[in-house]
Design a protein that fits this description.
Elements lengths: L7 H6 L6 H32 L1 H15 L7 H7 L2 H5 L2 H13 L6 E4 L4 E2 L5 E2 L4 E4 L1 H4 L3 H4 L30
Antiparallel strand pairs: 1-4, 2-3
Helix pairs in contact: 2-6, 3-6
Length: 176
């Protein structure tokens, strides 16, 4: 039995009348958006690790224990051996990356254009044509959302009492 591909290009090609230029633009948009946001996040993550050696050591230790590696000789070989199952066990790495995104979101301000009159959840009315922006950068530093230590890098805030990653509400953590 052949597996069905579930990538975005395959899904678009399932439609019979797709303008090739439109399809090209959409795919390029996804590739560019994914490349830039990933590069930005990894840059901030490396910066954070350099400034927090204890976090760096915890991340490295978790990777070594999960991957059961003693010494890595070739990075390509190591990277190809990382499985989705192994990544799911790396709770501290997930917490450290998420904490990086909380403080340094890949998209710090996100604007939207209102296509019709609407009312926001807090009761504020917006009209067709209004531009509304929310700011993940500012939200990640709000003390009333994250506590008095909101500006501090603390990956443990994402872990439960057993050390498992705990996701926050998407209305509180808007980076993704």
């Amino acid at each position: 039995m052949e597996l069905q591909k579930e990538d975005i290009l395959t899904r678009f090609l399932q439609f019979t009348e797709v303008d090739p230029k439109y399809l090209r633009d959409i795919i390029l948009n996804f590739i560019i958006a994914g490349k830039d946001t990933t590069a930005t996040t990894l840059s901030w993550f490396i910066y954070i690790l350099c400034n927090h050696p204890l976090v760096q050591e915890k991340v490295a230790q978790e990777i070594k224990e999960t991957m059961k590696t003693k010494k890595v000789m070739d990075i390509s070989e190591f990277a190809s051996s990382v499985s989705e199952e192994a990544l799911e066990k790396m709770h501290y790495l997930h917490a450290a990356l998420t904490e990086t995104l909380r403080l340094y979101p890949a998209v710090p301000v996100d604007g939207k254009l209102c296509l019709s009159d609407d009312t926001l959840p807090d009761g504020f009315s917006v009209n067709k044509g209004d531009f509304v922006a929310y700011q993940p950068y500012a939200m990640g530093r709000m003390r009333f959302l994250w506590g008095d230590d909101a500006e501090d890098f603390i990956p443990e805030r994402w872990l439960d009492e057993n050390g498992f990653f705990r996701q926050e509400s998407p209305f509180k953590f808007t980076a993704f």
